[in-house]
Amino acid sequence: MPGSAAPVQAGVLAGIAGLVAFLLIHHLLIVPMWFIAPAGGVLAAVGGVAVGTAYEDLLPHLPPRPWTAIAIFLVMGAILLPAFALAEVWGPMFAMGEDGGGTLLVPDVEAGARFVVGLLGTAVVAGAVLGWLLTRCRRAVVRLAAAGLLLAIGPGHNIPMLGGTPAVGNELVILATVAGVASVVLVEAHVRLVRHRQIVDPVPVPERSVDLSDR
Questions:
Q1: What gap in Å lies between CA 131 and CA 171, rounded to an integer?
Q2: Contact, 88 vs 163, CB < 8 A?
Q3: Where on the phi/psi map is residue 212: left (φ > 0), alpha (ψ -120 to 50), or beta?
Q4: Which of 66, 70, 146, 204 has its CA at a distance of 20 to 30 angstroms from the CA of residue 108?
Q5: Does the pLDDT at position 160 exceed 70?
Q6: Which of 31-41 are b and which e, b meaning 16 or more Cβ less than 10 Å from the residue's Cβ?
Q7: Phi/psi at 18 (nearest 5 deg)?
Q8: Mean pLDDT over residues 30-54, rounded?
Q9: How far is Cα 187 from Cα 68, in angstroms, rounded to an integer?
Q10: What pTM does this model have?
């Protein structure tokens, strides 16, 4: 696995694990949504690549295991927190009907602005700011901004729709579960991929993001 293969592969595994967690908890708390698995798997894998590449830059600045996964969980939460806050301030924009449909409560332009600015924009900015604060590295700024965008499009896509409604409680439970599972899988899969690489390739290879002796 030359170069950045290990964090990218770990990111893809984390994305798929997060999708499975989402589908399971959505099945238990709301309704089954297994039909989205094929398209969701593609989005989860793409998002996992973005998260994995950002993780490569972040890891040297994070605490050692077992605290690494908690730190990643908090970073994901911090990226989506501004979107949650804005959604709660702006209030409901969609009323769900008993038949599964619903009614938009705000003009189309405002709904689009809430999604583009309130969700995608804040996630990108929050990711970029966190990337700079944690690493002081421009590459990490870009990578974490991209990861924030895909987190918003993926697990965070319902935040503007559910803000200010009773359903926000379930949304928080779902997002926390997905982020928690993905964080643990990302960290542990990366460690095992690097360890496997060191076993099959005895030539010392710099792996700036993992120190197995301390972890």
A1: 26
A2: yes
A3: alpha
A4: 146
A5: yes
A6: eeeeeeeeebe
A7: -65, -40
A8: 94
A9: 7
A10: 0.88
